[in-house]
Amino acid sequence: QVYLAESGGGSVHAGGSLRLSCAASGFTYTMSCMGWFRQVPGKEREGIATIDDDGTTAYADSVKGRFTIYQDNAKNTLYLKMNSLKPEGTGMYYCAAQSYDGGSCLLLEVNEFWGQGTQVTVSS
Q1: Distance between CA 120 and CA 38 in Å, rounded?
Q2: Residue 73: which region, alpha, beta or left (left: phi > 0; alpha: psi -120 to 50)?
Q3: Closest-CA residue to 48 (of 103, 113, 110, 108)
């Protein structure tokens, strides 16, 4: 059974940085796509960053130049480094993974497996 466990969330002031981690387990193959999503109460979950099995990345316009998605395959861990955080970055951050190529990874669409989320709060 695939299991995704996020960590690294917390509270920071605007301009600060955090690094989120997503430890993946329960599978031996390479995921076709992995990504990070953010959700705030009353709004739909939005794609923040994704990475495909070639290492190609995609970002939401709101985070380009400030966030970096990367993975350590040896550790089966996905990361999201977030710099210059803004108050609108507050929300629950979820890790997601997809085992098949649905053709939409770089459109910030990932389905199939989800973690439980880690909360990020950015104060002004």
Answers
A1: 9
A2: alpha
A3: 108
Q: Which tokens is 97 given?
A: 């993974």
Give the separation between CA 88 and CA 124, rounded to whole angstroms: 10
**Looking at this protein, which amino acid is placed at residue 93?**
Y
- Sign of the CA dihedral 21, 74, 2, 58? positive
Strand 10-13 relative to strand 118-123, pairing = parallel
**Residues 42-48: contacts with CB under 8 Å, at least 24 apart:** 45/94, 46/108, 47/107, 47/108, 47/109, 47/110, 48/80, 48/93, 48/108
Query: Could you read off the pLDDT of 3-35 as tens digits, one per residue?
Result: 999 999 999 999 999 999 999 999 888 899 999
Q: Residue 39 in contact with residue 45, Cβ under 8 Å?
A: yes
The secondary structure of residue 30, as a DSSP letter, is P
